[in-house]
Amino acid sequence: MKKSPQDLRQLSLKAxxxxxxxxxxxxxxxxxLLFFAALLWTSLAQxxxxxxxxxxxxxxxxxxxxxxxxxxxxxxxxxxxxxDTGSSVAAAGTQANLIVNNGTLGAQNAIANFAFAPxxxxxxxxxxxxxxxxxxxxxxxxxxxxxxxxxxGGYQSGNIGPWMLIRPQPSAGTTAGAAAFIGTTQxxxxxxxxxxxxxxxxxxxxxxNTSTGEAKYYINDLLQxxxxxxxxxxxxxxxxxxxxxxxxxxxxxxxxxxxQPLPLPASTFCPPMFNNFDYLxxxxxxxxxxxxxxxxxxxxxxxxxxxxxxxxxxxxxPPYTYTDAxxxxxxQWIKNNNLKLVLGIQSLTYTGTCASGEGYQLLGxxxxxxxxxNGTLGAxxxxIHLDEPMSMGHESKCHLSIAExxxxxxxxxxxxxAVWPNVKVSESEVLYGSLPLSDLQAWIPAxxxxxxxxxxxxxxxxxxxxxxxxxxxLHVPFANxxxxxxxxxxxxxxxxxxxxxxxxxxxxxxxxxxxxYNASALPIPNKVAFATWDPFPAxxxxxxxxxxxxxMSYLINYxxxxxxxxxxxxxxxxxxxxxxxxxxxxxxxxxxxxAEGYGWGYEAIAGGIYATAHGARGLVPLYRYCRAGDxxxxxxxxxxxxxxxxxxxFYYEFVAGYVFPDASNxxxxxxxxxxxGDYYYxxxxxxxxxxxxxxxxxxxxxxxxxxxxxx
Length: 711
Fold this sequence. Notes:
Layout: H1 5-27, H2 31-51, E1 52-56, E2 80-83, E3 89-92, E4 97-100, E5 109-116, E6 122-132, E7 142-148, E8 162-167, E9 177-182, E10 185-186, E11 202-209, E12 214-219, E13 222-228, E14 237-244, E15 250-261, E16 266-270, H3 287-290, H4 293-297, E17 301-305, H5 306-309, H6 313-316, H7 324-336, E18 340-345, E19 348-349, E20 360-361, H8 363-376, E21 383-387, H9 389-395, H10 402-417, E22 424-429, H11 437-448, E23 461-464, H12 476-484, E24 488-493, H13 503-518, E25 527-531, H14 553-561, E26 571-578, E27 582-586, H15 589-597, E28 601-609, E29 620-626, E30 633-636, H16 639-647, E31 651-659, E32 668-675, E33 678-682, H17 685-693, E34 697-705
Parallel strand pairs: 16-17, 16-25, 17-18, 18-21, 19-20, 21-22, 22-23, 23-24, 24-25
Antiparallel strand pairs: 1-15, 2-5, 3-4, 4-15, 5-14, 6-11, 6-15, 7-8, 7-14, 8-9, 9-10, 11-12, 12-13, 26-27, 26-28, 29-30, 29-31, 32-33, 32-34
């Protein structure tokens, strides 16, 4: 759905107006509400555990992690270690690291295992994030990890689980780089990542489809190898990390074992055709294709807007003029890469007496489009995607009856089916409180029984175009209605829930949307689409390469392989006020309720922050300070900010949450001003400047908060 900035602002206000009463209820000190809040938290925790089998950040300090429970794991599950004499796997809580071999370079093997019983028909993902800190020249040190049927590591005889090892340097006849294995058999050739990968955190990933046996190996979310193995019955498996001759050379920052029921969602890509300079590069069979090869491997289809195939593009959008030869080449590329050609269309008929714009076009234009795609461009359309016919035809604009709307839509579909009889039909609809559930439930049978639908063809799927600021619980009836009608349920993942000022801000909002969905009670979708109706992403590198977090193709890999995608989403950072004690900010609903009992008045949600350090790339702690006597509070990220606060009589309390230290990761600036002991922080630049102009001390930008919570 294409939305103007004005539309987005209005929708945001509607979403917030529906969301704020929920917070009003949660803040009311009622025992029943506290009970239901606890029940909701328990449900979310159980949903999280169903997705995350194990996650650990090693935020504790012990000499050996043997028998320690991970941060997240089913009850009773613990680490075990299998190490040579004199070696161990120890945690260093101050660094949130795991040090292999306890820092002794001369030690042999040190292995940490997490046992689990694999299920058939499940997709397992094991990710590990670590650094090679240092090593001795010519020493054969390596770090291995994977899934093994043997507690002694993947290379032991009899193991058939997928595993990988990485050497930071050549030694003893071996080369530096990574190699993938199933048991003792190497699968694929070794790969030498750039030396820069060893200077910073490496994210290594193994995925395993226990239904097909397919194992895939990734370095920094980029696919390196694919192999196949068979899941044995009745065996215990171990997710493990293995250090060999590493000493303190390797430190582990995090490890996670996740599982998803199969199948994984099919997906389509609908990148921005306008306002960018690399759209055509997507279809370049050389360097362009190579720059998003991993992302492309996850796709089942490519969504092109009808404008791309329409001859009138030259007339109305001269900066984006493509020759017939260019368009034909792009469509042929889609076919050659075994992707379905999904053509987005307007399915309602503009008659000149009712409505125009989104959702509508002249019936003659539909025939012209079909003739052009089939003839001039020589392409076959596999699927047509309808742009919100119910929202545009029934709920707004022409206010057609549901039956009239369905009949009109099928008049358009018939033009396509006359040329491509087997073309599939899908659609997107939007719920902003204006599309009643009863109408949605009535729409699907009306579509199936419409005039022209002689075979009673059902929709291939229905995509939910969400407003990601509204509670996702509003969309549960949408998903249920689709399931009950036998229509596959799909989701658009976008960053359009904010008024973005940069590509990275749009991307971070999209990351949060994925986290929000994965943490919700909604079902795993049958279909996902990565799309934008926003001015962003735009400009150079708006779509490519997939290695850039600010390029849209990166979003596909984020959904399927990033360790951050299954982390909890940001939470609201709430502002309270009390005369004589200034302003107070917290991410804890329980603390809000407690503070109100001591006379603090609730004001607003100031923004969003992550509750853990694992939520996103580049997060840093936001430290909270308090002043004895008047209970004023202040917050800091940098040492300079800390020094200034301490000089004003404050003492350290704890970490309030995790934020971005600069704008490079797509956050929203959080400004600060001080009057005596009252520290006031806001994302609203005008409010901040007003305070400074009225005599408050200018504290500049404290940090950058999460864009999905932008007011």
